[in-house]
Write a structure and sequence with these properties.
This protein is an all-alpha fold. It has a domain of 113 residues. The protein has four helices and no strands.
Length: 187
């Protein structure tokens, strides 16, 4: 009798028959591991997301604070520089102003114009003389006599030559008429 080959159940000893089971099992395990990782990621994902958001907020606050500090330092430096430039410009303008004043004063001096100091001295002298004049008694206020009025001329001895008769008498309380020294030229 010849033996016919019978189909025997596949055993694990047969290397060719165990290969498909192993690869299917491995693929299935990999699939399950992926699902487990996804479940863990979903579970921890929200926690991880919150942690990342918190870290991002902390970093943003820190960078904003540092930016504010640098902005403040830059503002202080610019303010200091602007103040220094302003002072330097003021000094230069003052020097230019003094130079201009000196040159104008020299030009006016060459023309014979009095300076502000000269005018102030004259004003002070006038005020001093006015104060002395106001302080003097009334008797001393008579005007000094000029050379013409001090020299007396002999009066003619005639009845017709009387000067008091030819001139009208001044009204009481009025000033006596004075001679004008300059003649008005006819136009």
């Amino acid at each position: 009798m010849a033996k016919t080959p019978s189909k025997a159940p596949k055993t694990s000893a047969d290397p060719s028959s165990s290969m498909p089971d192993f690869s299917v099992q491995s693929a299935h395990n990999i699939w399950l591991a992926g699902l487990g990782a996804m479940a863990k990621a979903q579970e921890q994902g929200s926690k991880a997301m919150e942690a990342l958001v918190n870290d991002g907020l902390a970093l943003q606050r820190k960078s904003q604070a540092e930016a504010q500090q640098r902005l403040q330092e830059a503002t202080e430096r610019l303010t200091h520089m602007a103040t220094d430039l302003g002072q330097q410009a003021s000094v230069r303008v003052d020097k230019l102003e003094h130079l201009f004043e000196d040159r104008v004063a020299k030009a006016l001096h060459r023309l014979g114009m009095p300076t502000l100091l000269d005018m102030q001295m004259l004003t002070a002298r006038i005020e001093q003389l006015e104060a002395q004049l106001n302080a003097a008694p009334a008797a001393d206020r008579t005007p000094p006599r000029t050379a013409k009025t001090a020299v007396s001329t002999p009066k003619p001895t005639g009845s017709n030559t009387s000067t008091s008769a030819s001139k009208p008498a001044a009204k009481p309380g009025t000033k006596p008429a004075t001679k004008t020294l300059f003649r008005k030229s006819p136009k």
